[in-house]
Amino acid sequence: MEFGPGIWGPIAATVLMLLGAIIGYLVLIISRRYIVPKPSSEKLKTYACGEELKPEEAHFDSEHFYSAVRRVFKPFYKYVQPKHSGILSTYLLWVVIGFFIVLIAVTLSLR
Fold first, then answer.
1. Are 57 and 46 in contact (CB under 8 A)?
2. Which residues contact 11 (CB under 8 A, 6 or more apart)?
3. Three-state SS across the chain?
4. 70-73, long-range: CB within 8 Å, 24+ apart, which pairs?
5. How does pLDDT run across 12-60, given as a tens digit for each residue?
6. What is the mean pLDDT of the segment spanning 72-82?
7. Which residues does 84 contact at the CB level (< 8 Å), separation at least 6?
8. Which residues contact 91 (CB under 8 A, 6 or more apart)?
9. Residues 83-104, mean pLDDT to the nearest whole number
10. How is the chain split into domains, by residue range?
11. How far apart are CA 39 and CA 74, in angstroms?
C-alpha cells in the first residue's frame, strides 16, 4: 500500500476501527459470562445526591421539553406552519429534498 506524503491511510484506518470494534465486542461478551449482575433496590432508585425522591417528584415535565427548540425556531414555524398540508408523504418529500440540499452543500464546501 502506498500512502504518499503523510500518515493517513483510509483502508488501514477502516481495518483498525473494525478490528477495535470486534475486540471490544468480544471483551463485552466474555465479561458478561464471568460477571453476574447483583440487582438491589438501591440500584433502581433515582440518584438525587443522597436525598430520597418519590417517583412523582423525579418525573420530568414533558410538556416543556421542546420549548427551547420551539423558541429558537418560532419565526421559521410562523412562516412554514400555514403552508403545511398535513400529508405525511409530502412532509417526507421535503425532508429528502432538504437532506440532498445539505449533502450538496457539504460536498461543495469540501472541494
1. no
2. 1
3. CCCCCCCCCHHHHHHHHHHHHHHHHHHHHHHHHHCCCCCCHHHHCCCCCCCCCCHHHHCCCHHHCCHHHHHHHHHHHHHHHHHCCCCHHHHHHHHHHHHHHHHHHHHHHCC
4. none
5. 899 999 999 999 999 999 888 888 778 788 777 777 787 877 777 777 7
6. 86
7. 91
8. 84
9. 91
10. 8-38, 61-111
11. 46
- For the cut 70, the answer to whether the pLDDT of residue 1 exceeds it is no
Sign of the dihedral defined by the CA atoms of residues 27, 30, 36, 37, in that order: positive
Q: What is the pLDDT of residue 17?
A: 97
Record the cell numbers describing residue 11, joined without a space: 483502508
Cell numbers for 53, please give them: 425522591
Q: For residue 85, which of 94, 75, 74 has the smallest C-alpha distance?
A: 94
The whole-model pTM stands at: 0.34
